[in-house]
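Much of the work behind modern protein science is quiet bookkeeping, done one molecule at a time. The protein below has been through that process, and both of its lines are reproduced in full.
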Amino acid sequence: MNIVCLDLEGVLVPEIWIAFSKASGIPELKRTTRDEPDYDKLMRWRLGILKEHGLGLKEIQDTISTIDPIPGAREFLDALRELTQVIIISDTFTQFATPLMKKLGWPTIFCNELVVADNGEITDFKMRIENSKLSTVKALQSIGYDTIASGDSFNDLAMIKASKAGFLFKSTEAIKKDNPDLPAFEEYDELLEAVKKAL
């Protein structure tokens, strides 16, 4: 019994925070999990910048509404789902992910929740579980699944390495260099073929 676990941002859709950085004109918000391995530290830093600039959920959602999946992502996901079960495991939040899931044909996603005040200020965030990607992969394995995982960032490495087969996709040169044992792909066709061989 196989199940494919995919990261979302950078793999199927562009990075939300990079898009919002451009839209808001705040270059510091370009920092992502490709740059900062500590997700809690990264998110607390982001919330501080949002508060400083008086920006809230609405402004981010307005940007997200303009984001389309990476070209070929929907077709890749559809082809993959014809072969096996797929779960997107992301450190993003339901308030960000929902419009993107619609554009991807409503795949299953496991992600987190933002805490939003009545005035729209994002005051905190609730992680579903600690080390959510690795914890989810281990939980799936504990109920009889062999996992095949792919992602692009530091926070994907643990789930990729814990899986029966794991691949970097559209990752950075630094991450690829530090993990020469992990096959790395840039095109959906290549990743699809690698997954097929692992099934």
The chain has a mean pLDDT of 96.
